[in-house]
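Case study.
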Amino acid sequence: MESFANLIYGFGLALSPYNLFIAGMGVFLGTVIGVLPGLGGTSGVAILLPLTFVMPPSSAIVFLSCIYWGALFGGAITSILFNIPGEPWSVATMFDGYPMAKAGNAGLALASAFVPGFFAALIAVLLFTFFAPPLAEFALRFGPPENFAVLFVAFSTLTGLGGGSAAKSLAATAIGFMLATVGMDIVTGRPRLNFDSITLLSGFSFITVSIGLFGIGEILQSAEESLEIKGIQGKVGLKDLVVVLRTMAKNGASVVTGTLLGFWIGIMPGTGATPASFLSYGLAKKFSRNPQRFGQGAPEGVMAAQTAAQAAGIGSLLPMITLGIPGSPTAAVILGGLYIWGLLPGPALFTEQKDFVWALIASMYVGNVMGVVLCLCLVPLFASIMRVPASILTPIIVLLSMIGAYAVNNNSFDIFLVLVFGVIGYIFKKLEYPLAPLVVALVLGDITEEALRQSLILSDGSIMIFFTRPIAAFFMVIAIILFLLPVLGPAARRLRIGI
Amino acid sequence: MQRAETTCAIVLLILAAVVAREAIRLDIGWGDIGPKGGFFPFWLSVLLGLSSLTILIKSILRREQHEPKPFLPRRRLGQLLTVLVPIALVVPFIAAIGFYLTTFLYLSLYIWWTGKKHWALTGSISILFPAAIYLIFEKWFLIPLPKGMLEPYLPF
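After joint prediction, the assembly is written out as follows.
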């Protein structure tokens, strides 16, 4: 099995002292980011991305992905001990995690998050290892129309399944694309949408925009509420581990279901760990023998949420690596990183950049092992971060955000942009405009337009090219159905009631 | 909240119109090598225009029956400004007097005034943090941070 041989090769790279150090740093920083409520995984990855400019690309992706795994673990800590979600994907963990901690079972709650989460991650990485190469090969049959069609599906998923207002999702998507078109037009060589400003000639960096929207925007939002942070002391003991392992064995089916569900949702473009955790929790509650226990401190609730979230995180990198479509907003930022390092996702990556791909996959195993060990042992250390007062944490996060933005292009203008997008992010969050489509559109804007242009050139201007080629047509049909879901859904309901 | 929704939708409509005008200026037709530069932005502005119009109409038609949810209650505005105004000031300050000095001022004033922490703690954080950043970014990663007008006078 070629994959197996490649995996061994990848481990050789991932276990080098340098990469182990990088992975460890990533997991540690990721856990800290996961714990901090004012700093999310998406903006954390964006802020730390410029640090990767000094690393070789294979180490860079190890670093960024390990931050992701750390954040997936870390978010559970604040959820369980403080009733404050450190990450949006730990909200569902909080539902049962905090009641458990209040009842004196903090260690058990934490273990119920970390251990099943680790197993979920492990299963997800195995799936990843074996699905990635064939998926990349499938992408070899893709021409510009197929590329555009797949991207089209990505955006339809964001709109159709994003929940909330479809019009707002579409508006956010359009804005993201517009931001992407600002700058020099590759084809005609003329500046576009820069309104005669030289500064805007280089366009908007998705790093700056992400840091602003997700980072500063989040800070402004939490500034509204002055948080009184008092938490529960918790440590994971050996007894907790034994209980958790026994619970997992008893509920094996639901652990696997949570994992598979999370992995699948992670693969779907744009939807990541957050919707995965909610869906898994809801399903577990629905199919449980005692649903009333959920919300009062049921370990199965914590397990359902956390397994799905971690599996989704890993799943979201699969389409990113093979098709160039990020499965989650965090994956979108990492994808932006790939473009900066000069790497194009897809089959070429698997054949020409074996180091990169298999170091990443091997580091998924390594990173998650590190994450679970780190979290099981050092919960008190991470929890103590929360005792740092907001008056100190807030300005530090702001300053780190600005450094991150500045480091992109050594341009002070980016610092100003971070502020601007921070305010925009704050307003959008309050008015419930989804930010994920915006960031995904910004990252994918250029290649989407290129795919569209090339397809239209091939077809002499006819859009029928997307429907006459079988693979493209398949994706276009799915996309159209997804786009119409928000409209068809309520319409179907009304019809049924009418009858 | 409804007023904020409507305002935002109108702003987006204006944005769509501006982009559309720019796009038309760049020519949205067909060139010898395919669609011209303005093609993509134009249809994006159509998408934005239609969706913001939908949002606008929906927000006008929907009347808040129960108590209207305010966009930003007055007391929360105060708390928001306490965080926002310093951040807004940091930006021009960095350009003027450089990152490190701004960081020192921002941290010391913000922590002292908002957090009411002891001056020794405030002082040490305000000095240690920029020092740490200097070591990490200027020395290790070799990413120089802006120094503003003081550049020629600084020892580093």
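Observations recorded in class. The beta strands of chain A are 183-184, 191-192. The CA atoms of residues 320 and 326 of chain A lie 4 Å apart. We will return to this complex in the next lecture.
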